[in-house]
Design goal:
alpha+beta; three-stranded antiparallel β-sheet
């Protein structure tokens, strides 16, 4: 996936390294990798031959998308909860 950043936004965009992406999203590196492979997480950006990161704006959009879909999952199936 190729990323094109509008010229007006270049000054505001930044690359978030993997550790910070984990702190921001609350996900592990493996989880992000699996989600990315499934097309459910922003694609990595190659910074140098040995370094990757993510566009901050794409991570924020990913978080916003999850927040908007909160509560849309079907109820968990399990044993009934009994209250005293």
């Amino acid at each position: 996936m190729t990323h094109t950043i509008p010229v007006a936004d270049i000054g505001r965009e930044r690359i978030v390294r993997s550790a910070e992406a984990g702190e921001i999203t609350g996900t592990s590196r493996t989880t992000r990798w699996r989600l990315e492979r499934a097309g459910k997480f922003p694609a990595r950006v190659q910074i140098s031959p040995g370094a990757i990161g993510y566009l901050y704006s794409e991570i924020q959009a990913w978080i916003q998308e999850r927040a908007e879909h909160r509560g849309c999952l079907p109820p968990r199936v399990g044993r009934p909860v009994t209250h005293p």
